[in-house]
Design goal:
Structural class of chain A: mainly alpha
Helix content of chain A: over 70%
Number of domains of chain A: 1
Strand order of the largest sheet of chain B: 1-2
Helix content of chain B: over 70%
Order of helices and strands of chain B: HHHHHHHHHHEEH
Distance between the termini of chain A: 64 Å
CATH architecture of chain B: Up-down Bundle
Shape of chain A: globular
Largest sheet of chain B: 2 strands, antiparallel
Distance between the termini of chain B: 47 Å
Structural class of chain B: mainly alpha
Radius of gyration of chain A: 23 Å
Order of helices and strands of chain A: HHHHEEHHHHEEHHHHHEEHHH
CATH topology of chain B: Formate dehydrogenase/DMSO reductase fold
CATH class of chain B: Mainly Alpha
Number of helices of chain A: 16
Number of strands of chain A: 6
Number of helices of chain B: 11
Oligomer: heterodimer
Largest interface: A-B, 70 and 65 residues
Radius of gyration of chain B: 20 Å
């Protein structure tokens, strides 16, 4: 068995599952900190009830995020030792800063938050949740700084055995991360909002839970989610324009634009054919890709053929085009999921403003339960686009993925398979139980008629 | 002192902090199913480390991240080379961390006892594996001219490394029992103290065996034997003092003596390693050293500033959490985990 193929599957599967937990932690930690601050400020118990109720969901998710995160820290050594050697001078630094600045903060203060309800004052209790939320989001910044170097190397020079850092400031303020972090941050807000709203909808349908608490949660989550979704789309748009300039191979593949065009059409729905280098069943919007890329309807957009020719001129013969079908559809699913999320939240906002609860709209409530999957679809496809779209490079323009894998003499295919199956199965089983515990928590909320009988 | 040496010391500090803090909380996990007969007792035991275990675990994550930042070749050789051991370690830590959170969420005997034993295994295995790993690192392993480990998994399970692993397990279990004697009540603290006393005898036996075995395997080859022996002597004295306080029932003092033992052993073995970081048993010229395994001077300088600013801050707020949750845990408390 080819260790490279297995190592790639392993990294993809484990990282995607890890990132099921990350955006919810990023978004819901801040959401709960806001609600707990509202409780401290107003003294209204409905906010505290909401924090305690959703806090349980947060903690189940947080535990899974932490343990799958430990694996991430060591992955680069396990299967990608040549990558670690090549990138060591750059990549380890943000990882170490992440641990020192962010992991200690979130892990220490989450302990105080979980156990401190009657040990510290309400003010301090809200503060430690803010510190946890800040810690989680700081960790996102630093790991994305590390990832941004892989997307767009800055602040380095080439050494004998790999890259050497020349400017830590440039590594930390990589233009790529200035788009990537806000994109992930607002995706986290959106994810948290959809989880809170979707689970509330489930409770409305089951006629369970404290209604005042659910109404408050949904109202706040709608605003929170709208801010998140509108900004994730806005940032994403500018991020796309940045990538057109800096990673043309990714964007050409994401648009399945086989040939350069001026002005370039936007493909709404297509079935890319990588053998024939063409699209079947292409539904197009003329000149719209030029508009998305450059803000006008006349600019030229580089197609796959031109990108390939330029890469060959720079790096020698080879295939420099990422898998087009996957990248194209990952991009589309992300964007379409985001668009749908915006429409759903706008409608919910309209209902809220009319004073109509989801409890009175069971059809829409059902849609919102299933819509919990939308942010997960969007973040997963977003990362697939980012990482598959960077291929064949692991560090864009500097190191190919196949050059980064641990040597087969050190790590055999069998060993990678063992870790892939071992960790993969454990992740899936634990995720299953995590979801089950959340559902159990929902079912433990008191039924409406039982509460009415009191 | 050059930056490479300073970073070797910082890595030693991070591993010492990791073994000190995670040492007793692994110990707590190892003892939990035995000391806790009834469910409330087991919960009380888990809750003694409830607010702390996650923050403690970050010491390991930080040691790993700092290793990557300061000595990337060490990171790459170690974690690709000790592959299966690391995968087992990660699996153990996954079950342990999830176990704490999930265990008490379902009122089912089978569910809880399954997680209890997974927490037990998830605490025992990391202690054993880190002991085996450290012993192998200091003893030297087959590393080729490309800095790659070429020994395979079973090569790591040599008698010396296994004695090292057992030493870690017994030492951490003793320290965990000492911690529980400080943190529990309802009579459980007395049981924990008895266990700590018994484990102290076991620790003394294996630790002496490990130290004697270390002479031909490691210490005789050490380039800075003096410094190493100073730390190891401190560790031995601290262990004897630990035993004295355990007998007297002065558990807090015993706990700090145990902490000095763990830190002394860690520092002693790292000192024996210096200036190598992973000696090769094939040929000394293939060894990874603080120079050929390190990051560039620029990266080391940046990371030095980062570490010297952040580590003290971390120590202050982690210390504050131990102060906040200084009370004993009773089985009659409303338990969170």
């Amino acid at each position: 068995m080819d260790p490279l193929v297995l190592a790639r599957w392993q990294f993809a599967i484990l990282t995607i599952i890890h990132f099921f937990f990350v955006p919810l932690t990023l978004g819901i930690s801040i959401f709960l900190a806001i609600l707990e601050t509202a409780y401290v400020r107003t003294g209204k118990t409905v906010y505290r009830d909401a924090v305690k109720f959703w806090g349980k969901v947060f903690l189940i998710n947080f535990a899974l995020g932490v343990v799958s995160g430990i694996v991430q820290e060591f992955q680069f050594g396990l299967n990608w030792s040549e990558y670690a050697r090549f990138m060591g001078d750059i990549f380890g630094a943000p990882l170490a800063v992440e641990a020192l600045l962010a992991f200690y903060l979130e892990s220490t203060f989450i302990g105080v938050w979980i156990f401190g309800w009657d040990k510290v004052s309400p003010k301090i209790h809200a503060t430690v949740l803010w510190l946890t939320a800040i810690g989680s989001n700081l960790s996102a910044i630093w790991i994305l700084i590390a990832n941004s170097f892989m997307q767009h190397p800055t602040g380095y020079k080439m050494g004998e055995h790999g890259v050497l850092m020349t400017n830590f400031g440039q590594v930390a303020t990589n233009p790529n991360v200035l788009y990537q972090f806000p994109h992930v941050f607002f995706a986290g807000m959106s994810t948290a909002a959809f989880v809170v709203i979707g689970l509330s909808a489930y409770l409305y349908l089951k006629k369970r839970g404290d209604k005042a608490m659910l109404d408050t949660s949904v109202r706040w989550a709608t605003i929170y989610g709208l801010i998140g979704v509108i900004l994730v789309i806005t940032v994403g748009h500018f991020q796309g324009q940045f990538l057109v300039q800096e990673q043309p191979s990714k964007m050409a593949a994401a648009e399945a634009l086989w040939h350069s065009e001026q002005p370039a059409h936007f493909s709404f729905f297509a079935i890319p054919d990588e053998q024939a280098q063409t699209n079947h069943l292409d539904i197009r919007i003329p000149a719209f890709l030029s508009y998305l890329s450059y803000g006008d309807f006349t600019s030229k957009v580089e197609g796959i053929d031109e990108v390939q020719a330029k890469m060959e001129a720079e790096h020698g013969p080879g295939d420099y085009i990422p898998p087009v079908g996957i990248t194209y559809w990952a991009f589309r699913l992300m964007v379409y999921a985001g668009g749908l999320m915006l429409l759903l939240l706008l409608y919910l906002w309209y209902l809220n403003s009319k004073g109509i609860s989801m409890a009175e709209k069971p059809g829409f409530a059902k849609i919102m339960v299933w819509s919990i999957l939308l942010p997960y679809l969007a973040v997963t496809t977003g990362w697939i686009m980012a990482e598959v779209g960077r291929q064949p490079w692991v560090v864009y323009g500097l190191l190919r993925t196949k050059e980064g894998v641990s040597p087969a003499s050190v790590v055999s295919g069998g060993e990678v398979l063992f870790s892939l199956l071992g960790l993969g199965v454990v992740y899936i089983v634990l995720t299953y139980y995590g979801v089950k515990l959340v559902v159990k928590h929902l079912h433990e909320a008191p039924a409406h008629d039982a509460a009415a009988a009191d | 002192m050059d930056l490479n040496t300073l970073w070797f010391i910082l890595i030693t500090v991070l591993f010492s902090g990791f073994f000190f803090l995670e040492g007793f909380d692994y110990g707590v996990g190892m003892l939990m199913p035995f000391l806790g007969k009834r469910d409330e007792e087991r919960r009380a035991i888990i809750n003694t480390i409830g607010p702390f275990w996650d923050g403690n675990e970050v010491w390991m994550i930080t040691a790993g991240g700092a290793l990557f930042a300061s000595f990337p070749q060490w990171y790459a050789t170690l974690f690709s080379g000790f592959y299966l051991a690391l995968v087992l370690l990660l699996l153990a830590l996954i079950f342990r961390g999830v176990g704490f959170e999930f265990r008490s969420q379902v009122k089912d005997k089978g569910w809880r006892s399954t997680w209890d034993w997974l927490i037990w295994l998830g605490s025992l295995l990391p202690a054993l594996l880190w002991g085996v790993a450290i012993a192998n690192i200091v003893r030297g392993v087959p590393i080729d001219e490309h800095m790659n480990y070429v020994g395979g998994f079973f090569n790591l399970l040599n008698p010396y490394a296994l004695v090292g692993g057992i030493t870690f397990v017994v030492l951490f279990a003793m320290h965990g029992a000492t911690y529980l004697a400080i943190k529990l009540t309802n009579g459980l603290e007395k049981q924990a103290a008895r266990v700590a006393n018994r484990l102290w005898v076991a620790t003394l036996v294996v630790a002496v065996l490990f130290l004697l075995y270390s002479y031909p395997e490691v210490l005789s080859k050490a380039q800075y034997l003096g410094i190493s022996l100073v730390f190891l002597a401190i560790a031995v004295v601290a262990l004897l003092v630990d035993g004295y306080f355990l007998k007297q029932g002065e558990m807090l003092k015993a706990f700090w003596a145990g902490a000095v033992t763990i830190i002394g052993v860690t520092a002693g073995f790292f000192a024996a390693l210096y200036p190598n970081v992973m000696p090769s048993s094939l040929d000394p010229k293939y060894s990874l050293t603080i120079y050929n395994a390190s990051a560039s001077p620029y990266t080391l300088k940046v990371m030095t500033i980062v570490a010297l600013v952040l580590v003290p801050i971390v120590l202050v707020y982690q210390g504050w959490t131990y102060y906040t949750f200084r009370q004993r845990i009773s089985v009659k408390d409303e338990l969170t985990y």
